[in-house]
Design the sequence.
């Protein structure tokens, strides 16, 4: 299987682990035990890693590679996935709004669950519908070289935003870590 897809699937696993952390934070918020610093760090991770790093790879490398190899029939699915990335950004915005300047525990918990359910479905769609179609086509193999592991890693590191440097590290361990500040 393509190294590019292996990398993206590995990142999906890390993101799913992060959703467990988000749900735990939401439960703590409802119990009155939320830590504002932890919430801010997790929201930074969602914005920097999930959106800018991971979704950036899909939109900037994977989806164009699929189009180059003639998977035009996937255009509708790719368009749907890009629209879902936008929807995910809006849901992270709702999480941020519910947590700043003061935490609204109920709104945060509702937004956290909505985001987690949404992203789980989105990841399932990519893993189970889109990804199996890419590397199975022999003609796609040469084009997948554009989505090699170094390309994926450098696209993450090149964004220059706080926290993105940690995205490669968080995924190699198979579990999420909070992004480093600075």
Sequence:
């Amino acid at each position: 299987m393509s190294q590019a897809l292996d990398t993206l699937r590995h990142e999906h696993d890390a993101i799913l682990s992060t959703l467990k952390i988000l749900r735990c934070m939401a439960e703590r918020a409802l119990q009155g035990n939320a830590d504002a610093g932890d919430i801010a760090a997790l929201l930074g991770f969602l914005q920097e890693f999930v959106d800018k790093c991971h979704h950036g790879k899909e939109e900037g490398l994977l989806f164009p590679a699929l189009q180059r190899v003639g998977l035009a029939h996937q255009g509708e699915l790719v368009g749907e996935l890009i629209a879902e990335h936008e929807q995910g950004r809006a849901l992270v915005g709702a999480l941020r709004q519910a947590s700043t300047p003061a935490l609204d525990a109920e709104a945060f918990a509702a937004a956290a669950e909505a985001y987690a359910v949404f992203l789980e479905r989105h990841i399932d769609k990519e893993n189970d519908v889109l990804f199996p179609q890419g590397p199975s086509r022999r003609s796609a193999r040469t084009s997948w070289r554009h989505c090699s592991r170094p390309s994926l890693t450098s696209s993450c590191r090149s964004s220059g935003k706080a926290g993105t440097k940690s995205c490669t590290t968080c995924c190699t361990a198979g579990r999420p870590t909070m992004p480093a500040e600075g």
Summary: The two ends are 36 Å apart (CA to CA).
